[in-house]
Amino acid sequence: MGSRASTLLREEEIEEIKKETGFSHSQITRLYSRFTSLDKGENGTLSREDFQRIPELAINPLGDRIINAFFPEGEDQVNFRGFMRTLAHFRPIEDNEKNKDPTASEPLNSRTNKLLFAFRLYDLDRDDKISRDELLQVLRMMVGVNISDEQLGSIADRTIQEADQNGDNSISFNEFIKVLEKVDVEQKMSIRFLH
Amino acid sequence: MFSFHAIFFPQWATLRMERGAKEKNHHLYKPYSNGIIAKEPSSLEQEIHELRGSANSLRSEPEFEMADIFYFCRRGVESIVDDEVTKRFSAQELESWNLLTRSNYNFRHISVRLSALWGLGVLIRYGFLLPLRLTLAVTGVGLLLVLTTMVGFLPNGELRTYLSEKVHLICYRICVRALTAIITYHNRENKPKNGGICVANHTTPIDVIILANDGCYSMVGQVHGGLMGIIQRAMVKSSPHIWFERSEVKDRHHVAKRLGDHVADKTKQPILIFPEGTCINNTSVMMFKKGSFEIGCTVYPVAIKYDPRFGDAFWNSSKFGIVNYLLRMMSSWAIVCSVWYLPPMNREEGEDAVQFANRVKAAIAAQGGLVDLLWDGGLKRAKVKDAFKEEQQKLYSKVLTVHPALYCAH
């Protein structure tokens, strides 16, 4: 029998998630349904295997990096709160949010946080720097066997050369933001959630 | 008869619920038909070039932008929230409740009246409908075993064929009553004929009974043990069915030969095959395995669509065994479905088996109002092949190595 989604998710929890992520009540219950349908072990958390079971994600060249983004450092399970927190990065930035109280903590879906999400996809060892090696590894994931080592190497060199401003041969988060300042991050890193 | 009541009760109940919900402005209805997210139907090349357009790009060698990652990232997270495949392997979500606990996903307690209605429903379904249906089912299967064996003693000839058809039809009709299946057949002039293959979308083992109720087919399948095995052996005594040993299934030439031989004999009934190879939840049609389309005979496509409001017919084999499933079917309100016989199709010049299979699949999907997917139903259990990921990587590499000016020259 299907799980009784709304009875397992308490109203207080929904309110907390609403405050933290900005999703609406109905979006949260729909996403909870999705969460439970992915949770084959039915233990309230998702493992990496649960994500890999999604064919469209399994064929995504950066599938493993994206899956990794859901799991906090060193952990193998993600609960619904963590799931929602990660998804919150992809909420569109609504206009009324831009005029909100500037002293409130930055929402998860701000431009900076979206960029941070993308930055962490490149930063394999989570040391807040994208080294040439890390860039090469991610590039290799994206192109497979179709581009030679030399070509890939020169792509990586050129990219770092253009982005690196303090000469440490790696890209920091601020340098990353600078490179992408003309890109419409809000649109490209947003998913249209329906009510 | 009682099938009238089985239909009337839930319909009346649904109307009352709707009225009650509107009165109290409850969120009884969720717009499931809209999906959780809206996806952009754009391609990899399109999106990467859009990303490039907003960044600096004046080079002439292989190009890469750090922003490219956004495309893969967004697509990946979109598929985590809503993908086309995994939802096909579990029962369809309903927009309004049909008074069956098993369909109760997101529906909360609305009123005492509704719960009382549900309780009454349980009494009727389990106390009255289920025992009645079980008796019918046992009768139907028993008769099938006895009568087919008896017909099997007759010598080959017209009489035997005629009697065999009658016996099969009678027994299937009893089984249909046992499930209270209310079937509407459309376009019966297109019914499959001898020497052809009938292909249909697969939702449940009951599909066989639904189709066999209206015509005689030769079944294809693996030899089973137990009760299924006894039924299989009995059926074969009176009419030609094609049962394979487990070991023979892997040998594609052997399978193709047996099917081919059967089809070549015009006195034999049409073969019934479900090319998806597994049960899908009746919202989509998944990849058709090309084996049946290589044989070279006429294909008669059939679309079967179940109405989920009276009882979801989908068999989720990872969740329920067959006995559990049949009991659930027999304690639902009814199984309401439509069957469309589509005009026969033949492989055209220059078309290979895969293209032919896709053409047939598209026709069935269009008729049944189902989503036409290229994904393999086998993904229910197996991992997706690496080749698909390699395709994505290839596509992206192409974008990197093509000079932007050349590309924009279209």
UniProtKB/TrEMBL annotation, chain A:
GO biological process: one example: protein transport
Predominant place of localization: membrane
GO annotations of cellular component type: cytoplasm; nucleus; plasma membrane
Limits of the EF-hand domain: 26-61, 110-145, 151-186
Alphabetized GO MF terms: calcium ion binding
Subcellular location: Cell membrane; Cytoplasm; Nucleus
PROSITE patterns: EF_HAND_1 (PS00018), EF_HAND_2 (PS50222)
Matching Pfam families: EF-hand_7
Top-level taxonomic group: Eukaryota
Keyword annotations of the record: Calcium, Cell membrane, Cytoplasm, Lipoprotein, Membrane, Metal-binding, Myristate, Nucleus, Phosphoprotein, Protein transport, Repeat, Transport
InterPro entries to which the protein is assigned, alphabetical: Calcineurin_B_homologous, EF-hand-dom_pair, EF_Hand_1_Ca_BS, EF_hand_dom
Gene3D superfamilies (UniProt xref): EF-hand (1.10.238.10)
Family: Belongs to the calcineurin regulatory subunit family. CHP subfamily.
Name used for this protein in its record: EF-hand domain-containing protein
Lineage per the UniProt record: Eukaryota, Metazoa, Chordata, Craniata, Vertebrata
From TrEMBL, chain B:
An annotated Gene Ontology molecular function: glycerol-3-phosphate O-acyltransferase activity
Record carries keyword Transferase: yes
Domain Phospholipid/glycerol acyltransferase: 196-307
Main location: membrane
One of the record's GO cellular component terms: membrane
SUPFAM superfamilies, per the entry: Glycerol-3-phosphate (1)-acyltransferase
Protein name: Glycerol-3-phosphate acyltransferase 4
Organism for this UniProt entry: Myripristis murdjan (pinecone soldierfish)
Family: Belongs to the 1-acyl-sn-glycerol-3-phosphate acyltransferase family.
Pathway: Lipid metabolism; Phospholipid metabolism
Location of this chain's protein in the cell: Membrane
Record gene name: GPAT4
A biological-process GO annotation: phospholipid biosynthetic process
A family per Pfam: Acyltransferase
Keywords: Acyltransferase, Lipid biosynthesis, Lipid metabolism, Membrane, Phospholipid biosynthesis, Phospholipid metabolism, Transferase, Transmembrane, Transmembrane helix
